[in-house]
Structures are given as C-alpha cells and as structure tokens.
Write a structure and sequence with these properties.
Layout: E1 6-12, H1 33-44, E2 48-54, H2 58-68, E3 72-75, H3 87-97, H4 106-113, H5 115-124, E4 132-135, E5 151-155, E6 169-170, H6 173-187, E7 191-195, E8 200-207, E9 213-214, E10 218-222, H7 235-239, H8 241-246, E11 249-253, H9 259-275, E12 281-288, E13 294-300, H10 310-317, H11 322-335
Parallel strand pairs: 1-2, 1-3
Antiparallel strand pairs: 4-7, 5-6, 5-7, 8-9, 8-10, 8-12, 10-11, 12-13
Helix pairs in contact: 1-11, 3-4
C-alpha cells in the first residue's frame, strides 16, 4: 500500500490572489479543467491536498509552504504575471525551498523554453532539426542565405502555438521581414525563424526520470487542408473549435507507421528527453517526412494534463488510466533528485 501524501496543488492565476482564495467558481470553468481534473484524481487516490493560485506574489507561496508543510507540490504554475517565460523561475524558487515537486526542474524548463538553444544542443548530438536563425528584439536581420523558403517565423519562448498563424508561413524576403517585425512588436519577444518541414505532425508523450516510458504516438491530422497548402499547428489549429471543424483538424492516434519507424521515434524522443534534462513528464513535437526522416520541432516539459488532452489520452491507450497517471507523476516528483 503506497503511503498517502500531503500535497499542495500550485496553480497560476491571471489576476492577484489571496492566501485563502475560493476557487470553486473557476474550477467549474473550461479554462480550469486541468486543475479540476488533477484535484479530483488526488481525491480519488486518497491524498490530502490543498491548493494555491499565484499571480505576482511569491510570498503567498512561502506562507503556504510554511503553514501547510506539504510533502509534495503538484506544480501546474507555468506563468507568473501572465508571462510564460517565468515558469522556470517559479520552479527555481521551489528548488531553493527543498520541497519535492512534480514535473521538470529549472534547467530542463530553461533549455526547452529557449527553442534556439534546444535546437543547437540536439543538432550537436545529430538529431535532425530544421535549419533556423534567432532574431533578437530590436534587430532587423536579413534572412541568412542558408535558410531556404518556405520558412516559419515564431516567438522564441512561447508555448501552445501562441503567436503562430497562417501568416507565420513566409515565402519571400518581404514577408519574412514583415512577420519578424510584427512578432517583435506584438510579443516583445525574440523570434525564431526555421525552415518549414513538410510532413506529419506527431506528438510523443513520455513519462519518467531515469527509466522512460513512451506512450502511443498522437498526430494532428489536417483532413480538409488542400495538398499544396502548408499544414502548420497554428494557435487556431490547436484551440479554435470552429476553425478545427472547418479544416477537418483532428488530434488522434497516428496510423500506418512502420513498427521500425515507431521504434526509431521512441529512441529519438528518449535521447531528446535526456539531452534536455527533462524530469517527470513531457510531450515532444516532431515532423516525420515522406522519407521517414524525424525532425525535432520542440519539447514541452509541462504539457496540458487534462484528462481529455493528448498526454492523458496517450497514457490511457497504454492502459494507464487517469488517476494512476496522476499517481505516477506524484511518485516521480517525490523521487526526483534536484541538484
């Protein structure tokens, strides 16, 4: 019988919060379905838990840790002051306090967030990455000659396809300059421009610290997009249900992959996970070309854990039902060595 734990579920909020804030209304909304699913699973598993949402005041977290004395923090806080670039800073704070927590440590979060650095590391280790360049804020940079059209222009440190639209797909130097300038101004962020890889959009979920389990592969399928049109995972393609219906976009289990290719994908993703020093769990996004060449696109060390999203669906396909998945994540967090 596994011991029951005293857990603090840590969330982020989009406005200032208080130590004893009532979140019952929020937890009934779609925006908070992940948090609600996690709390329900922790209850089903018999753990004792409380929750805290933070916006711009880390002292709330210090007070809560001091008063509640959790044995583990289930960390779902992936932004601070509405800025997703600060997720690693929250985790650094937890590391300094020495409280075990779920998910990835600060080094892995930093490496994954900075898409240019992650691609340099993996390219050095001979994992295929698209040709790319990073354009810092405030700099006008002409397209390097090695970077061939078509090109995708994206924010360097954003997640969930924020800042990616059909206009991110550029085919001329004029479009390239316009999109870079637009993203610099809109996001206040550096930009990464990378060659568009024609192929299947695959999502690979992994669980573990040292011994890794790779779950069945998911795919974003573009059913109604004409063959000569770019197939890219834009913000709308991921989150706008009307848009998804119109273009026949579906997230489903990848079909028709040769077993040898599946094994190669699994081994590649394990290497990526370890090279980027990821802990706990992650989703790795790939492109698979018609010649079965595997290209790394990005790693997400804090994928959405809602029961109906890709990560949990992949785990369920591998016979790991939702409460058991959450329990595995809890146990991994408890046993992660934080240097």
């Amino acid at each position: 019988m596994k011991p029951k734990l005293k857990i603090l579920a840590l969330f982020d909020a989009i406005a200032p919060t208080t130590l004893d804030q009532d979140l019952s209304a929020e937890l009934k909304t779609d925006d908070w379905k992940t948090e609600a699913n996690i709390l329900a699973a922790l209850g089903e598993l018999g753990h004792t838990f409380e929750h805290l949402a933070i916006f711009d005041d880390l002292d709330l977290l210090r007070q809560k840790i001091q008063s509640y004395e959790p044995e583990l923090i289930f960390n779902l806080a992936d932004q601070f002051k509405n800025n997703r670039a600060f997720d690693q800073n929250i985790v650094s704070y937890l590391e300094l306090h020495g409280v075990p927590f779920t998910g990835c440590g600060s080094t892995g979060l930093t490496l994954c967030k900075q898409k240019g650095i992650s691609k340099k590391i993996l390219g050095y280790h001979r994992i295929r990455v698209p040709e790319f360049t990073v354009i810092p804020r405030g700099k006008r940079q002409a397209r390097p000659k090695r970077l061939k059209f078509p090109i995708l222009v994206k924010p360097l440190k954003e997640e969930a396809s924020y800042g990616i639209s059909q206009a991110s797909f550029v085919e001329t130097d004029e479009q390239f300059k316009e999109r870079v300038q637009f993203l610099h101004e809109k996001t206040g962020n550096d930009v990464i421009a990378e060659e568009y890889i024609e192929g299947r959009e695959l999502y690979v979920s992994l669980l573990g610290n040292h011994r890794l389990q790779v779950f069945p592969i998911r795919e974003l399928v573009f059913q109604e997009v004409p063959p000569d049109e770019p197939k890219i995972a834009t913000y709308k393609a991921k989150w706008d249900e009307e848009y998804r219906k119109r273009w026949g976009l579906q997230n489903r289990f990848a079909e028709g992959l040769d077993p040898a290719v599946v094994r190669q994908i699994e081994q590649t993703c394990k290497r990526i996970y370890r090279l980027l020093t990821i802990d706990g769990y992650a989703r790795i996004d790939l492109r698979l070309t018609a010649n079965n060449e595997i290209y790394f696109i990005e790693a997400n060390p804090n994928p959405i854990l809602a029961a109906d999203e890709d990560f949990a669906q992949s785990a369920a396909k591998a016979s790991l039902l939702y409460p058991q998945l959450i329990d595995r994540i809890v146990r991994l967090g408890l046993n992660t060595v934080r240097d």
